[in-house]
Structure formats: C-alpha cells, structure tokens
Amino acid sequence: MLKEYKSVTAVVGPLMTVEGVEGVTYEELVDIELQTGERRRGRVIEVNGDKAMVQIFEGSQGINLPETKVRFLGRPLELGVSPDMIGRIFDGLGQPIDNGPKIIPKMKLDINGSAINPASRDYPSEFIQTGISTIDGLNTLVRGQKLPIFSGAGLPHNNVAAQIARQARVLGTNDKFAVVFAAMGITFEEAQYFIDDFTETGAIDRAVLFMNLADDPAIERLATPKMALTCAEYLAFEMGMHVLVIMTDMTNYAEALREVSAARKEVPGRRGYPGYLYTDLSTIYERAGRIKGRDGSITQIPILTMPEDDITHPIPDLTGYITEGQIILSRDLYKQGIEPPINAIPSLSRLKDKGIGEGKTREDHADTMNQIYAAYTSGKDAKELSVILGETALSTADRAFAKFSDEFEARYVNQGYYTNRTIEETLDLGWDLLKIIPRTELKRIKDALLDKYLDGNR
C-alpha cells in the first residue's frame, strides 16, 4: 500500500522537498495532490536520509505546503509503447494531443533506458539517403550514426529537419523505416509547421511526434528526448524497424537542465551549465546505434542552435565530442538565399567512408567526394585572393576553381527544401560541375573513373 505524506517543507522553482520519507528511490515517479484536488506528477531526483527532492513536471505554482499530499509510486516514469504510436502526435510526456484514441500499450518501458553496451554494438555501415546533396554526397549519414546539425538563431534548421524527416530512407532494403521526431521548447507556430508539413506530405504515416512547447514546463523538456528514444528503441529493437530520431532543439534541453541545476543550488560549470552536462548529453546520444543480432537500428540527428553562433559554446562543444561529426548551417549562405544553407567546409561525417562505395552508393562516390571538397576549398581561397590582388592575378586553374565554387553553391547546395535528389542524381551533378575544372587539376580521382564518368561514357 502506498504511503501518503503531508510533509512538504520547501518549494523552490520546480523543486519540492519532502521530509520523513521511507523506501524512496532515485527516479521514482511521484503523485502530488494539491489542496484544490488538482493532481500533478513529479519524479525523485535526490534522496538524502529521510528527505526526498522531487522535480514537479507541471510546475509548482499554487502549492500550499501544509495541505499538499505526496505519494511515491514505486516505479520510474514510463512510456506505454505500441505499434499504434506510428502516425500519432504526443506531448512531451507521452500523452496524445492529436484528438485520437488513447494508446493501448503492448508494454511499459522505463524512459531512462541505457546506452548500448559497446560489446553488443554493430558497426554502422549502411547508407541513409536524405535527398540533400551536401549531406548524401559529402557528409554521408550512415545507419546507426549520431550526426548533429549545428545551427544559429534565425537559421532555417526547422526546414532542414522537416526535409530530412520527409525524405530519409535506407537504400537497398525493404525493411520498415520510421521517423521519431522530438521537439523541445519550440513555439506553437513552429510546432504547427511541423505538424502541417508531416501531415500534408504524408510523412506522418511513418512518424511519431513528441511536442514540448515553449510555454510547457521546462521540467517536461528534460523528459521529452527520453520519451522519444524509448519509443524509438521499441520500434527498432522490438519491431525490427530502422528508426531515424530527430531532436530539436538540444539547446533548449540544456537550458532546462541549467535551470534545474540552479534551483538545486549546485556549483555551476562553464557558462553556468552543470558540470555533468557532458554526462547527461551522452546518456541521450549513446542510445543510438545498431545491436548485433537485431534487425533494427536507431540513427540520431540532434539539432542545436549555437548561442551567438559560437561553436566553442559548451553545448555544441560537448555534442561534438560525443557524436560522429556535425552538419553546420551557414549564416552567410542563408543571406545569399541558398536553401538549405549547409556549409560543406566545416561540416563532417566521421563515418561517411563506411557507408559509400560500390554496392552501397556507387564506385565513384569516394573519389568525387574528395575532389569536390578540395575544389570548393580551392575556389573559396581563389576568390579571397582575387579580392586582394584582382581577378587578373589569378591563374587559369584558380579562375576555374573560383567559378566552380560559385556554381557549386548555386546548383549543388541550393536545391531547395522540397527537392529530393537520389544519390545517383547527386553524383551525376558533381561530375557535371567538375567539368568546369581542367582535367589535369582533378588529381584526387582515378583515371579509370575520369574516363568512365567525366566524358559521359557510362
């Protein structure tokens, strides 16, 4: 029988202290009844002797200390999962908000989960086609990978996220593919954009959406990515699906973590974030991957906005350490009207070499990827030089590289948010652009591939 306590001694922000408790455990779910009869939920985040600190999901407004009743439920926060979740929209705590029927769960899972055991991990090696040339061609996404998108305030990361959710698929397999989308701290307008986009394009038929809005309690924000990943783990490892998890915005998640840390009076770390920010982020990111002997997989694309476009800020800095690369959106390209404004030079996918080549994409992928990247960087350097010395000071090759740079941005990068290119179209476009450069300068591609693809003898 559950004990009921009326020994709330303090409320600070979203935190509540209960004294005289027995047998309470960390992460235990809590039922809170206010003096008005209103019920709220919380979870235990600290236990010290007979004192428990409870994090209240719906906020602490209106709590009367002597009249508040608290019950510890003896179980962690759980998500009821079922195949019927596909095509549905939930709030940040897993409650349906799309006016559909309640989910009848096949099982209930602890949302805290755990990172995949390194000994059980299978190496990511299968190409995922996003339909975006700058990702597929130059920074390839591989099944089971964690590849974040680094953005900035006002940049169109929401458009990129929606485009990937619509277009992503695993090539060469008939396995089922699903998208789990988690939004944290976004505005109502942004949430409606995602819902409308998924619904109108039909992407909702293979997606599960978890929406935590900006006016929802910050504490709920801490549970939202874990809810999404718990759903993804069920779909991947119980139902054998390939699951792409898109989480936006991880900066809002980290801000909520800092808010709770400050309320607990913890010693702050860099920029006021708690010292365990790295550990906390890793518990989310490391829930992606493949497991030996299991058909399913979880691929993650976390999206975060860099405060003041500062890539050395703790959130992108620590995210870069944990994940396998980054896709970076450029404010300069955005101002030029390029869509999507992905900056190919600092972007990186550390696992791209494992997901490309003959039998996965095409035999010429690796060579053209290296050559296009080298030509683009040479072209940017040549353009900078021409500003100082004038275009007449450039060599014939430099002028070709400068022209390639402009054409690359105009045709390769600037494809729009509703153009879904196959990997063959991306590679063929790359070859078409490389014709701008003299063949003698294409030093990163084998002669056999130049003979086969550059001259059109395919």
From TrEMBL:
Entry's Gene Ontology molecular function annotations: ATP binding; hydrolase activity; proton-transporting ATP synthase activity, rotational mechanism
One example of a Gene Ontology biological process annotation: proton motive force-driven plasma membrane ATP synthesis
InterPro entries linked to this entry: ATP-synt_VA_C, ATPase_a/bsu_AS, ATPase_F1/V1/A1_a/bsu_N, ATPase_F1/V1/A1_a/bsu_nucl-bd, P-loop_NTPase, V-ATPase_su_B/beta
Domain ATPase F1/V1/A1 complex alpha/beta subunit N-terminal as annotated: residue spans: 8-74
Annotated ranges, domain ATP synthase A/B type C-terminal: 354-453
Keyword Ion transport assigned: yes
UniProt domain ATPase F1/V1/A1 complex alpha/beta subunit nucleotide-binding: residue ranges: 131-349
Keywords: ATP synthesis, Hydrogen ion transport, Hydrolase, Ion transport, Transport
Signal peptide (from-to): none
Matching CDD domains: ATP-synt_V_A-type_beta_C, ATP-synt_V_A-type_beta_N, V_A-ATPase_B
Pfam families: ATP-synt_ab, ATP-synt_ab_N, ATP-synt_VA_C
KW ATP-binding (keyword) present: no
Family statement: Belongs to the ATPase alpha/beta chains family.
Stated role: Produces ATP from ADP in the presence of a proton gradient across the membrane. The V-type beta chain is a regulatory subunit.
NCBIfam families: PRK04196.1 (NF003235)
The protein's name: V-type ATP synthase beta chain
Encoding gene per record: ntpB2
